[in-house]
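Morning, I've got a small favour to ask if you have a moment. It would help a lot if you went through both lines with me. I owe you a coffee for this, so here goes:
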Amino acid sequence: MPTRKKAANKTDTKLFVLDTNVLLHDPTSLFRFEEHDICLPMFVLEELDDKKKGMTEVARNARQASRFLDEIVSDAPHNMAEGIELTSDSRKNCTGRLFLQTESISRELPATMAHGKADNAILAVVMHLHHQQPERAVILVSKDINMRIKARALGLEAQDYFNDKVLEDTDLLYSGVLQLPGDFWERHGKDMKSWQKEGHTFYQVSGPLCGAMFVNQFVYLENDASPFYAVVCEQSGDSALLRTLTDYTHSKNNVWGITARNREQNFVLNLLMNPEIDFVTLLGQAGTGKTLLTLAAGLLQTLETKLYSEIIITRVTVPVGEDIGFLPGTEEEKMTPWMGALEDNMDVLNKTNEEGGDWGREATRDLIRSRVKVKSLNFMRGRTFLNKYLIIDEAQNLTPKQMKTLVTRAGPGTKVVCMGNIAQIDTPYLTEGSSGLTYVVDRFKGWEHGGHVTLMRGERSRLADHAAEVL
């Protein structure tokens, strides 16, 4: 009876057949299927072998996947047909087995599907297992959309690899901003304490809405008489401490000649100009002012207040269209074509001061150039930045692992600003839910030295705003 019961329960576990791109995307996927079993066709092992050469992220992941497989197989019994236990002291949640293809598959595919092609050979394995174990769910896991479509056309079950997704629905992503209801003060101001300190007014409030607030989240209440803008300084249970903001929409508080044009830009400048905030993430479509505000705040704190020694800008070099091949010159010269946004914003920031004329503008441009360094992502590993203002542009094209590598470069006194638009991802296999930018926004929310704002309104031009809406 115990044996029969065990066999009956075994059908409850699924068998996942992994495509090569899943291992290349996340080598730890071998241990992400909990109690379920996984199978690797022989073609997957061959493709891993082909991809392991080089210094790219794909090659590193291929080598790491191979090391994991070597670690698993080295302790395997002689009869691999029964599967290899994946559980270990460090991976107690992973209780399934790993099956490697140990026999030739004779399952025939439709005549129209080319023989010898890796994708079709993997599909043949899935079909063979499906017919061999009809009582069990056999599922192909692949990041390749066309591969999943072909599998479903053959009557096989297929799905994407979901384990790397931070959120299923990016509409639920933390925005960093909370609109207060019209009756906020009536419901939360009963035992309120208020005081002033260093030009800001503090409000100690308590009520049901305080439990949903995060530290460094911006709150606002707009009415015709006196709009209220504040940031959450402390949050505990159903009480919160709110502090009013510096008004960067006023010209007296301009940052390198730039003033905030809307509510969210004001919130952004309050984050960027706060020396207690070490990590800032900015989301928003093209033209919302992410790069301009970040550069303006960086220049003021580097050249005037001397809070940082220099500005370092980096971004992922993913082309939108056809690649233009190798570029000559030094690291900075190679990065120049990717930094058109930097040049455009420098032109805007350099025109804010008209007093010195053309000669003064050129002198200012040279001074700025000496303090702004453009670096490639490829050479970041192992570095430590001290008292730097690090800007990571187009961060939506980074994987969570690359994002971790970059953010952990920050040494004492360094501020890191990540910005991007998750609707414009150019990296294969990355989605809005699995982007490194989405990852850090979700993981850093509520940290006392980090802040996030999603910018909503474009300020580039009426043409750009209209194009963003209708195209």
